[in-house]
Amino acid sequence: MEELRLGDQMVRYDRNATAAAYALMPSGGADRCGRVHCRNFAAQRDSIYNNEFRDLLNQLGVDSNKEGEVYDKVGPFDVGIRPTGGWFYFVGQLVEPVEKMMQTGHLQYWFQPSFPRPPACFGERVAAIEFSLEAPWVLDESPY
């Protein structure tokens, strides 16, 4: 396993094992969800992450088109913006957890010590990177 430091956090990860696990996943969480906010996210998945975050996912072996889960945040928000979050899994472990987030533009991300159960293809030693962003509403249908 290799080590990676992200701000004050450190993880150990296995890029090859992570890429192999993603090859076994047929789709990402937004595709499996089917709800309108998930479809809105999936419609812009190719453009919503900045290059820095995509590079990090690539370094970990993560397929950026196959998030483990996507969730719609609760609360009042502008009708044209949808606060959204989610997780990507990777084979590895969180070595130094800290609750500080990294931020680049509209995107925040951090290694998360607790997360929904990953698919079995990731094995026993799994960690996650969580993200939070404001997704523009791009679908013709209403978010409500």
Layout: helices, strands, pairs:
Elements: E1 2-6, E2 9-13, H1 15-24, H2 29-33, H3 36-43, H4 45-48, H5 51-60, E3 69-72, E4 81-96, E5 102-104, E6 107-112, E7 126-136
Antiparallel strand pairs: 1-2, 2-4, 3-4, 4-7, 5-6, 6-7
Notes on the protein architecture:
With 144 residues, the chain is α+β, with helices and mostly antiparallel strands. It has one domain (2-136). It has helices spanning 15-24, 29-33, 36-43, 45-48, 51-60; strands spanning 2-6, 9-13, 69-72, 81-96, 102-104, 107-112, 126-136. Strands 1, 2, 3, 4, 5, 6 and 7 form a seven-stranded antiparallel beta sheet that branches. A hairpin with an 8-residue loop joins strand 3 and strand 4. The longest helix has 10 residues, at 15-24. The protein is globular, with a radius of gyration of 15 Å.
Instruction: Please provide the ordered H/E string of secondary-structure elements.
Output: EEHHHHHEEEEE
Average per-residue pLDDT, rounded, comes to 89
Q: Give the overall silhouette.
A: globular
- Strand content range: 25-35%
In summary, what is this structure?
The protein is α+β, with helices and mostly antiparallel strands. The protein contains 5 helices and 7 strands, in the order ββαααααβββββ.
Describe this protein with a few key phrases.
alpha+beta, 7 strands, 35% strand, 144 residues
